[in-house]
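Summary for the steering committee. The consortium agreed at its last meeting that each partner would contribute one worked example illustrating the joint modelling workflow. Our contribution is presented below. We chose a case with several input lines so that the handling of multiple components could be demonstrated. No manual editing was applied between input and output; the record is shown as generated.
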Amino acid sequence: MAEPIVRVSDLTYYYPGDTEPVLRDVNLEIYPGEFVLIIGPSGCGKSTLALSLNGIIPTVFGGRIKGRVFIDGVDTRASSVYALGTKIGIVFQDPDAQLCNLYVEDEIGFGPANLVMAREEVFRRIERSLQDVGESAIRQKLIYEISGGQKQRVAIASILAMEPKIILFDEPTANLDPLGAVQIFDLMKKLNREKGITVIVIEHNVDSVMCHADRLILMEQGTIKFNAPPRQVMQEQGRFVIDTLGLRIPQVAELGLRMEERGTCLAPFPLTIAEAAEAIAARSSRLEFLAGNPCPAQSEKTPPVIQTEQLNFVYPDGTRAVKDVSLEIARGDVVGIIGKNGSGKTTLTSLLIGLNKPTSGTGMVSGLHITKASTRELASKIGYVFQYPEHQFVEDTVYKEVAFSLKAQKRPPDEVNARVAQVLELFGLEKAREKHPYRLSMGQKRRLSVATMLVLNPEVLILDEPTTGQDRKNIDNIMDIMLRINRDGTTIILITHDMNLVAKYCKSVVVMDGGEVVFHGSKSDLCRNLSAIRSSALVLPEIYALAQTLRCEKNYAVPQVFTVEDFVVAVKVI
Amino acid sequence: MARFNYLKGDSFFHRMDPTWKLVWNFVLVGTIILNFDVLYAGLWFLYILLLALFVARIPPKQYLRSISFFVGIALFIAVWHSIYYPWGGETLFEWGPIRTTRDGLIEGFAAFFRVLVIVSLSIIFTLTTDPGRMVESLIQVARVPYRLGYTMYATLRFIPLYENEAQVVLNAHQIRGVGETGKSLRSRIRLTWSMMVPLLVSGIRRAQAAAIAMDSRGFGAYEQRTILRRIQVARADQIFVFIHVIIGGLAFYYYIVLGYGAHYIG
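What follows is the complete predicted structure of the assembly.
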């Protein structure tokens, strides 16, 4: 076998001032042309490992380091960061932070120009890199004019221009819509296959990428726990990954595990929809599908809690962000609002809570006119949880944070105390009550941000991208609380890209595109008519697509399913 | 809204090299602050106003919006000058300790025009200069080290992001009911601080992420970097600046060296 292109031996690293290492005795070898996926819970040291591969750690960060990292035979500690830049490039999560030029062309030429290459060479590389990522048309554009997916492709092109042998992607799709994410994963595969670039990917959102990987590395608490082909890790350790580590695995892999527990091994263990369909077909003699729809029937009509008529909103710069939206949301519903970035989802909800006043049209939110009521009045009826919890924090302890709104409403101290204690318990934050909100873990911050809204007993709770940067465990935790308060009558609105979240929890779905509502109905109608709905950002949940494939291509009587649980319930092993 | 943002357009000033435009600005500011004659300042103001409206083609409305705030300041300075004019002259108005003389009033007008000239120059500069091009020109024409130039560049690139984020935080805090707990100065300072914290935290995070991304692509590896778009300074830009240097020099000679119109300096 060839020499490894990445060799990490006994790597232990402490950030400056830390007494606990982030990485402990990490040993890793990656070979030229491999596609490697790295997963692990937040804080397990994945990103630190990434930065130690291109020499940023320890050259720029300092800190204490033991062990060695060799990239293409070169010791990272004996080399400079820029020399390593021609061997390994990193694409980061936030496209806005990693692009530092005003024009696309300058951004891609940035690295080669830093290395003082001849102008003609720089231009040649700009042209070729843009071609490789399929974005030749935007060469002369300004960075802030292009979409999130395009920004991420420009970031990849800017790395390609350095002509590295290895590209490392550190959660490259966290800010993208589902289709944007799939496109980035396909691009990775293409670069890997056609150009022979070694690809290393760190991801939370593994559904569409695990099938591309030759190897899966699972990290926990600074060590490598498993290092094997993904199929093997999923089959042998899938339960541990889901239950103990609280990570996401592809839905079809989860199905494979569940079927195995019920005594039917799907072989080979599925990682893609096609594989799962084949494996199920191969076992069909022992399987029987129960007819009927396992998802609960649409409940009877309830009076709307939100009602809008012909809402329009135009930003001062002339952008029509919301167009003629007439929408009714039933009391007690769990609604998912989906659509690609910039389709008007957030602007629409900002109208409901009075942060913006509609340019024309009217609306009612639990008896208040959105055109007449103030944000304060509306906020007493609707809670709004922002995408980044830190944006909403105003106090210096968890307790004060939750009590803040109650105190602002001049509630008596006894009531405040009792209510805060109750909410802290509901969210499992009692032990953290004297902590500073910024010092909480990602999951705790998310729970606290929801708690600060829930303490006021709102009739409607809006959550803006609640799953961003969260592990599966944290998502499940928050959503369980949401379902509980929903049973008590609170209407929940989820603004999200996460189709699995929509499939699992939502009762109805609103799809927005270009400021208009292009679909409003049940999620089964959504999935059935997906191709007819005008929105380019949606991707079917894997498990739904699997059931559809089995129905259409194999003629099995598989009912419509939205979750792995639904599927398992619908199939009977003989 | 935007008083001083770059306005896309095509004019002599839009095409002019930013570094030379900056030099032109400084030459005229120098010429105007060295002189206290009212006619001199008035003529310059008229000339710059014509340049702004007809050469730089700044829409009159935009020009008024940009300058309105400074007209107030200029008036204030003018009144101040005319009241505290120490050299006597014919008294025009007297009320208690306040006395305005004819010479003082003229002096006040001169100060008024001087302020407006300086502000108008800045308006021409900011409204006709693409910030990105300015940084490129500073690096190539003014030979500012590129590392320093890129610091400015990054700032320009991140300003819209910060504005956006500040709006989100403001909204988030509005929903929380911030600003209703108290109107005392102390609670206001605390609330402003509570808004600053998330912005600072994310600002530092973003700056660090940007620095890592730039380092990873070899930023700062060498003293020089390849220049992708070579800037050619047009002959017309240089001639334009030299003409003003000559006018400024003559004015300096006439007023300061020969001493006309600067009776109280010498």
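The domain at 6-241 of chain A is CATH 3.40.50.300 (Rossmann fold). The longest helix of chain A spans residues 178-195.
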